[in-house]
Protein: SIS domain-containing protein
Organism: Candidatus Uhrbacteria bacterium RIFCSPHIGHO2_12_FULL_60_25
Amino acid sequence: MNLSDYFKRYTTDLASCVQGALATDASGCELDLIQCLEQTIAKFRESHAAGGKIIFLGNGGSAAIASHQSYDYWKNGKLRAMCFNDASLLTGSANDFGYPDVFTRPIAMFAAPHDVVVAISSSGRSKNIVNAVAEAKRLGCFVLTLTAFGADNPLRKLGDINVYLNTTTYGHAELGHETILHAMLDHTIYGEAS
C-alpha cells in the first residue's frame, strides 16, 4: 500500500476509534460517552472551586500525554493540574518503593478527596497505574481512566468513569486519548461559543 492510501486509512481508522470510544462505570455498566465527559469536566471545575487539583498519570507515551495535559489544563484551562513525571521523583520512588508503587506513594502524599485523577494507560494493565488508582479511590478521589487494547483490562474496572478505545495500536490509543483530553479542555475553555 502506498503512503497516500495508508495515511487515508490510518486517519479514517483513528477518527472511527475516537468516535467509537466506550464509557463505563466501575461495575462495567455502559454509559453515554458525552454525558461522562461532561460529568468529568464538571468534576474538574468542582475540584478547582474546592481548592483541589487534577493529577495526570501515565507511563511512556502516556506519561508524555500526562505531562502535556497537566500543563495545558493549568495554563490554558486555568485549573490546578500536575503529574509525577519529575526524573528524581520517578527514579527515587522506583528505587525506594519499587516500580509498582512509583505513583502510589506520591498519590498517598499529595492527593486529597476533592482531587480528580486521570489515569492513562494504553494496555490498562500497568501495575503502577492500577496501584495508584486504587490508592486514589481509597482516598476518595474521582477517577477517570483512559485505556485501550483489551476491553477486560483491570484499570477499566477501577475508575468512576472509564473510557475505552477499541484498538490494538499504540498510535491510535495514544492519539485517541490525547484527542479526548484536548476536546474536554477546549470545551472547558471555549464552551458553547466554539
